[in-house]
Amino acid sequence: MKFIVSYTLPYEHRVMVGIEAESEEEALEKARAEFDEGTLWADTETMPLLLDEYEEVDDGALEFGIEQALPEGGVYPPPDASVLAIRQDNAARQAAALLVAAYEAGANGGSIAWEDLDEAYAAALKVVGR
């Protein structure tokens, strides 16, 4: 049988941003407004993202549960957008690393192997959704 298993772990999401303001109250108001607009994490020059971390809550118990039991021959659902974002980020890192490696292999008068570029290109295509 196939099961969809989840786990829950209590955590605290801590974010720090740089905000210019005339007072502490104004800075807090700006932060709340940016949060409400969904732009607090935009990481701009005028409001840089300084920290974005998840920390487990003390005494937080790890809990496992069954979300769904699939019928015989059942198929897992497609991955959530959060998983797609993780995969895209991983592919971007891989493409960048492969491109750097290909460039460095050809640096100082050497040549760049097409197969190295092909591998970096294939990884980059995953990032742009093709």
Largest sheet: 2 strands, antiparallel
Number of helices: 3
Radius of gyration: 22 Å
**Strand order of the main beta sheet, please?**
1-4
Give the beta-strand count.
Answer: 4
Distance between the termini: 33 Å
**Structural class by secondary-structure content:** alpha+beta
Q: Give the H and E element order.
A: EEHEEHH
- Indicate the percent of residues in helices: 40-55%
Unreliably modeled segments:
none
Strand content: 15-25%
Average per-residue pLDDT, rounded, comes to 89
Overall domain count: 2
Shape: flat
Protein model, in words:
With 130 residues, the chain is an alpha+beta fold. It has two domains: 1-76, no CATH class; 78-130. The chain is built from three helices and four strands. The strands form two sheets. Strands 1-4 form a two-stranded antiparallel sheet. Helix 2 (81-106) packs antiparallel against helix 3 (114-127). The longest helix has 26 residues, at 81-106. The model has no long low-confidence stretch (mean pLDDT 89).
